[in-house]
């Protein structure tokens, strides 16, 4: 099993944090730059969620199909698997979006994604007095504990 | 502060006299309040040592009032007059009341006779912190140092108090050491009082 | 709000003595009065700082209570009263009037104002203005733009502390980048 990389976005599309453990295919051969790469990722999450919501067969929605939805509403997906990798996703009601790309052999990581949000992001980023909300961060305690958690997956 | 013509009993009296920990707040409430104090302070200063000074000033205020409350309540108005007495009061009573536990150690400085150290392995104000590289040696424990300085000053033990991060064996994170350097007159007075 | 697990009816997380919090808040207000000079400016600053706190605090709240979805103003208000105040300030709050877009909430106690009496020259100071900002900031993060005012204040002679909240609008999720 391999963890490739992780993105954390806020609702405004700012990539608050990017972490890479293994990325055989270089960014240069994809989006080009890390900034464009993050933007593309955010666009994927945003559109996919909208499509998921639009084709949701379960809930009666009062607004027309495709109309903007309030944050926290709509259908959030938790993961998808391609032939080459698996994308795990957590979208908090406050609009924090955590993406973890792994190899396809990893099972359900919902619990771990929630741990990253609640035990790591909330403790070591949100409560860090030197973190300015909405800005990218490189919090040492967050990274250390994240690496520990990622290691424990394998 | 002046009395207002209110029919309520004075809030101040009401709360000093009731027993402590009448209610507890979530650790998050303090963490977020402290974060915002740090964020605000950063907009009023131009470098790291000014930021530490500003945090210490806010802490100083807390220390002065904490002493008033504790002396009122725990010591029935009796005040400490010896260095060791006030230090152990800080290490035990003050720490317990502020952070829910006693400090981890109280030591005498090895190099100077007028220096003492109170250490805490997991000081609340440093618990969630990661200091960005461009802020170098910033220690938000300055706030706790300010509290200690405030307690000491209003108890009649003026001192210079600073906070330091000290890496120690067996601990994953550095501990916070509050270094207290007493003013010469405090040392003299204590020597006169004998042992 | 719906939850993954059990919503913490008891209080989640570590607790500390309210005095550290109360005295620290008092010290902050005193420093703001020194820095900014006018009580009106301090009110504004407290509100801003509260808003920033709310933006942070909401994530902690969602995480600790396992909340994965927030539906509407009424539910949010109830959650704040039943769980939020207890979790952060250790106090009970009661919603006294509620509609789809407006409500009043009474706090049975308020640790912010322990030991506090306002001198007359600080009459314009809204000592607890931070709270309004916190609620506004937190709700804005979960898509609700609200207005929060202190409608009753023991520091101004009222018996209880009361907040008046009004829903202005729900915020929609929008794509933040211009299409290339």
TrEMBL record, chain A:
- Keywords on this record? Endoplasmic reticulum, ER-Golgi transport, Golgi apparatus, Transport
Cell compartment(s), UniProt: Endoplasmic reticulum; Golgi apparatus, cis-Golgi network
GO process annotations (BP) = endoplasmic reticulum to Golgi vesicle-mediated transport
InterPro entries documented for this protein: Longin-like_dom_sf, TRAPPC
Question: Is the keyword Transport in the record?
Answer: yes
One Pfam match: Sybindin
Q: Please, which domain of life does this record's source organism belong to? A: Eukaryota
Protein name listed in UniProt: Trafficking protein particle complex subunit
From TrEMBL, chain B:
Cell compartment(s), UniProt: Endoplasmic reticulum; Golgi apparatus, cis-Golgi network
Give GO BP annotations, semicolon-separated. Answer: endoplasmic reticulum to Golgi vesicle-mediated transport
Cellular component per GO, a single term: TRAPPIII protein complex
**Top-rank taxon:** Eukaryota
Q: Which UniProt keywords apply?
A: Endoplasmic reticulum, ER-Golgi transport, Golgi apparatus, Transport
What CDD domains does the record tag this protein with?
Answer: TRAPPC5_Trs31
Keyword match Transit peptide: no
Database matches in Pfam families: TRAPP
Say yes or no: keyword ATP-binding present. Answer: no
Subunit structure, interactors included: Part of the multisubunit TRAPP (transport protein particle) complex.
Q: Which family does it belong to?
A: Belongs to the TRAPP small subunits family. BET3 subfamily.
Q: Report what the protein is called.
A: Trafficking protein particle complex subunit
From TrEMBL, chain C:
Say if the entry is tagged with keyword Transport.
Answer: yes
Q: Where in the cell is it found?
A: Endoplasmic reticulum; Golgi apparatus, cis-Golgi network
| Chief location bin | endoplasmic reticulum
Q: Which Pfam families does the entry mention?
A: TRAPP
Q: What does the UniProt keyword field contain?
A: Endoplasmic reticulum, ER-Golgi transport, Golgi apparatus, Transport
Q: GO CC: one term?
A: Golgi apparatus
Instruction: Note the superkingdom of the native organism.
Output: Eukaryota
An example GO BP is: Golgi vesicle transport
InterPro entries, alphabetized: Bet3, NO_sig/Golgi_transp_ligand-bd, TRAPP_component
State whether it acts alone or in a complex, and with which partners, per the record: Homodimer.
Q: Which family does the record claim for this protein?
A: Belongs to the TRAPP small subunits family. BET3 subfamily.
Alphabetized PANTHER family for the sequence = TRAFFICKING PROTEIN PARTICLE COMPLEX SUBUNIT 3
| Role noted for this protein | May play a role in vesicular transport from endoplasmic reticulum to Golgi.
Task: Specify the protein name.
Answer: Trafficking protein particle complex subunit
Q: Organism, per UniProt?
A: Chloropicon primus
């Amino acid at each position: 099993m391999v963890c490739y990389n992780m993105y954390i976005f806020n609702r405004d599309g700012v990539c608050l944090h990017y972490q890479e453990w293994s990325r055989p295919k270089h960014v240069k051969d994809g989006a080009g730059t890390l900034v464009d790469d993050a933007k593309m990722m955010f666009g994927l999450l945003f559109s996919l969620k909208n499509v998921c919501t639009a084709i949701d067969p379960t809930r009666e929605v009062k607004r027309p199909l495709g109309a903007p939805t309030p944050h926290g509403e709509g259908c959030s997906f938790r993961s998808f698997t391609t032939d080459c990798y698996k994308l795990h996703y957590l979208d908090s009601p406050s609009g924090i979006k955590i993406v973890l790309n792994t190899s396809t052999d990893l099972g359900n990581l919902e619990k771990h994604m929630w741990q990253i949000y609640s035990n790591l992001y909330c403790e070591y980023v949100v409560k860090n007095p030197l973190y300015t909300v909405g800005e990218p961060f490189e919090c040492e305690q967050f990274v250390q504990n994240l690496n520990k958690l990622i290691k424990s997956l394998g | 502060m002046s009395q207002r013509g209110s029919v309520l009993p004075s809030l101040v009296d009401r709360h000093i006299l009731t027993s402590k920990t009448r209610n507890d707040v979530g650790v998050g409430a303090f963490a977020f309040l402290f974060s915002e104090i740090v964020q605000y302070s950063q907009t009023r200063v131009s470098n790291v040592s000014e930021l530490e000074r500003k945090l210490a000033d806010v802490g100083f205020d807390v220390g002065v009032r904490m002493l008033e409350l504790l002396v009122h309540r725990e010591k029935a108005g009796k005040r400490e007059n010896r260095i060791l007495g006030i230090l152990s009061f800080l290490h035990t009573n003050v720490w317990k009341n502020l952070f829910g536990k006693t400090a981890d150690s109280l030591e005498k400085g090895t190099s100077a006779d007028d220096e003492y150290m109170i250490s805490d392995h997991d000081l609340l104000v440093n618990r969630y912190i990661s200091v960005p590289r461009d802020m170098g040696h910033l220690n938000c424990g300055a706030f706790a140092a300010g509290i200690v300085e405030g307690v000491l000053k209003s108890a009649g033990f003026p001192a210079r108090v600073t906070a330091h991060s000290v890496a120690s064996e067996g601990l994953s994170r550095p501990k916070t050491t509050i270094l207290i350097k007493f003013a010469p007159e405090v040392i003299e007075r204590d020597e006169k009082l004998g042992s | 709000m719906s939850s993954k697990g059990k919503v913490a009816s008891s209080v989640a997380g570590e607790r500390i003595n309210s005095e550290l919090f109360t005295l620290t808040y008092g010290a902050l207000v005193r420093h703001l009065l020194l820095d900014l000079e006018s009580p009106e400016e301090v009110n504004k600053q407290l509100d801003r700082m509260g808003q920033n706190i709310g933006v942070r605090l909401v994530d902690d709240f969602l995480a600790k209570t396992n909340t994965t979805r927030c539906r509407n103003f009424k539910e949010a208000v109830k959650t704040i009263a039943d769980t939020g105040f207890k979790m952060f300030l250790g106090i009970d709050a009661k919603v006294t009037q509620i509609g789809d877009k407006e409500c009043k909430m009474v706090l049975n106690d308020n640790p912010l104002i322990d030991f506090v009496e306002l001198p007359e020259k600080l009459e314009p100071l809204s000592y607890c203005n931070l709270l309004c900002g916190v609620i506004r900031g937190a709700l804005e993060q979960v898509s609700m733009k609200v207005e929060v005012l202190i409608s009753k204040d023991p520091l101004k002679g009222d018996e209880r502390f009361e907040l008046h909240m009004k829903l202005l609008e729900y915020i929609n999720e929008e794509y933040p980048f211009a299409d290339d």
